Amino acid sequence: MVNREVVGAHYGLRDWLAQRITAVIMLVFTLLLILALVSLPKFDFWHWQALWNLSLMRYAALLFLVALLYHAWVGVRNIFMDYIKDSGLRLTLYVVVILALISYGAWTVQILWGI
Amino acid sequence: MRLSIYRYNPDVDEKPYMKDYDIQLEPTDRMLLDALIRLKSTDDTFSFRRSCREGVCGSDAMNINGKNGLACVTKVADLKEPVVIRPLPGLPVIRDLIVDMSQFFKQYHSVTPYVVNETPRPETERLQSPEDREELNGLYECILCACCSTSCPSFWWNPDKFVGPAGLLQAYRFIADTRDQATNERLDNLEDPYRLFRCHSIMNCVDVCPKGLNPTKAIGKIKDLLVKRTV
């Protein structure tokens, strides 16, 4: 392959925008969680369990999780784009990160629905 | 005045080194450039670029006490001694404070930095309303000194792919120009994870610009237009 400087993949806007929207989602959930925690009458296991038994809480947490994973993917890919020069290595790292994020997602769902 | 200056002559020196100087300033030596010219009169091997000596040509951009700036508009009185002077970071050094700006200008040329207008040329100038002209303030003043792009880590890591703050400010300058008809092509050209989206808005460019311009704001406006075009 010839060694040409190639640039112009024509994407990036959606990820950039999504990173901002997911940040807002995470902020709202974090505030919601803090509010829920301080409004617990007593901070013990039973109240904690009762909180996470609420469907609203679980679905909100799931939404937060999706936002977090997308946000993390865009951010980590940005770091690789900045610092990793070799495109083969970069692609490998992308795959590793995607697989790791999917596993974290599955693991979190398992925890959320296992309480 | 005490100066510590980056010296490197690839024909003679194996590697760059810092050299200390003590120079006697005259009362008329008000700006750092005056001090450097004074120094060159005692050591003519010392090399740097300068031309207009009043902040218009952008030739004498350098790293002064860790911050990029123009020597000709930097007051000697404001500098903490010893004044450490290095070439602009991230560009290949040709000799002493002289850097190879090819990469910087390549990025500048990549944004089509001129008005594109296919309509027949009118008898007189293409006129703008005062309001339309107002849009260009804060954009057209750029002198391409490269202080901003060479203070930008994204440009350090990807100078071949990221347009950099100077180039993007110029790109927006022509997007904002009502006489230009190539807005869509310009946005197409920039919509890219490397060319535009390496900017993470850390605003180093705004911090160093000797003309007080705001490339981050211009980049934000390009992103706003991309969003407007998409949603």
Features:
heterodimer; A: 115 residues; mainly alpha; 3 helical TM bundles of succinate and fumarate reductases; 78% helix; B: 231 residues; alpha+beta; 30% helix; elongated
Summarize the topology:
The complex is a heterodimer of chains A (115) and B (231).
Chain A: H1 13-38, H2 45-53, H3 55-83, H4 87-112
Helix pairs in contact in A: 1-3, 3-4
Chain B: E1 2-7, E2 17-22, H1 32-42, E3 61-64, E4 67-70, E5 83-86, E6 93-95, E7 98-99, H2 102-109, H3 130-134, H4 153-157, H5 164-175, H6 183-190, H7 204-208, H8 215-230
Parallel strand pairs in B: 1-5
Antiparallel strand pairs in B: 1-2, 3-4, 3-5, 6-7
Helix pairs in contact in B: 2-5, 5-8
Describe the structure.
The complex is a heterodimer of chains A (115) and B (231). Chain A is mainly α and 115 residues long. Helices cover 78% and strands 0% of the residues of chain A. Chain B has 8 helices and 7 strands; from the N terminus they run ββαβββββααααααα. In chain B, the strands form 2 sheets. Chain B has a 5-stranded mixed sheet with strand order 2-1-5-3-4, with no helix packed on it. In chain B, strands 6-7 form a two-stranded antiparallel ribbon. In chain B, strand 3 and strand 4 (67-70) form a beta hairpin. Chain B is elongated and about 60 Å long. In chain B, helix 5 crosses helix 8. The interface between A and B is medium-sized, with 16 and 21 residues.
Can you give me a brief rundown of this structure?
Helices cover 78% and strands 0% of the residues of chain A. Chain A is mainly alpha-helical.
